[in-house]
Write a structure and sequence with these properties.
The complex is a heterodimer. Chain A is mainly alpha-helical. Chain A is built from 2 helices and 1 strand. In chain A, helix 1 packs antiparallel against helix 2. Chain B is of the alpha/beta class. Chain B has 11 helices and 13 strands. The radius of gyration of chain B is 64 Å and the shape is rod-shaped. Chain B starts with 6 loop residues before the first helix and ends in a 6-residue tail after the last strand. The chains are: A mainly alpha, B alpha/beta. At the A-B interface, helix 1, helix 2 and strand 1 of A face helix 4, strand 7, helix 5 and helix 9 of B.
Chain lengths: ~70, ~400
Amino acid sequence: MSAEPESYEVLYARLQEIVRHLEAGELPLAEAMARYEEGVALSRRCRSLLDAAALRVTHIANPTAAE
Amino acid sequence: MLRRYTVGEVLRHLGELLAHDWILSDVWIEGEIGSVKRSGAGHCYFTLRQDGALIEAVCWSNQLARLSVAPRDGLAVLAHSRLVVYEKTGRLQCYVDALRPLGPGTAAALLEGLRARLQAEGVFDPSRKRPLPAMPRRIGVATSHQGAVLHDITAALERRFPPAELLVVDCLVQGAGAPQAIVAALQHLYGLAPDVIILARGGGSADDLAAFNDEQVVRTVRASPVPLVTGIGHETDHTLADLAADLRGATPTAAAEHATSDRSALLDALAAWQRRLDEAIDEQLAAHATRLTLLYECVCRHAPAERLRRADDALHDAAGRLQRRLDAHIRLMQAQLAAVEARLGALDPLAVLQRGYAVVQRQDDGTIVSDAAALPVDTPITITLARGRRAARITEEEP
């Protein structure tokens, strides 16, 4: 289970952080625009995680079943 | 040649033996009632157990109302019965027509004892319960592949949160091997480290749910390294595993719902943050625009044309100030002049005449006389008064 995909919670929390930062007070224009673009990208990634393909079901044999 | 018997013949023969056996046709059986079920026709099916032995029992609907106590799970009884063989299944059954309660059953007492012991250990302590993750991506499920439970869970997840991955470990959920299978399934899931685990089983009698009251199962549930939610039986069923879990779902479907966020709610929340993001950048841009306007106005103030205009204004102001100063000076001079004129007025001889004095002049040379010696008798004089003059002649030297 390596290369854990980025978690929705982490992306979502980062989006919230960016919005709060932008709301807190005036930033230099370049920084504000960079933050905004990052926020848009995060919200797209969040959305794509929610839009991901159908439920994947993996069946695993019970280790005691062989007995 | 051996005599052959059909299955039916064998069972009917056995039935005959039972019906004529003086014990088995009229017997008080001591045992604990379990697995109580009512059929649509109103008959009551249950089991009688004692010390690991079990017999199936039926109380027909017409007998049921006459019982002194209604059959219920965990009740220890003496059951008046006759034994029969049910031909369709070949099973031994006892037809019960009377019940005498013997106090709480041993299984119920044992269960209560275990509950109390685990409670005292803090296994059910509410402070040990963890919140379920807001959006689990990998969900472990321990349940039986048979029956509707797995379908109920996948249906709930597909409805609420399709992006999830489900790791399903099959396990027996009733019978003697169930506790061991459940423990193994959970421990296998613990090794896979999902975000949350669902332990589920469909509805059943108290006997069917017994595995979820097994001490080892309960302890394994409590030891879960990730939040674990149970969905065992129906709303009214409470097992010790439910108490030990981080959260109890009333049914497998409810457990699946607890274990996941609602996708549409997540989308709504995300959309709200997107709106806030847009509003925030609008605010930022508006603030910059305002500052730009202020700067522009500042630049304008320093433009050459503006400076000329302001110099012109200053010149106007100076000229005005000068004019006002000049006017004030003139007014002062006029006032001083008026004062001098007033003083001159005080010296005017005419003004003295106004007070009744007269001026005497010699007519011959016009000199003004102030000494009487200059006026001998017969000298012609002119007397000037405040208003008009008169000619006169001196008549006497002394009046």
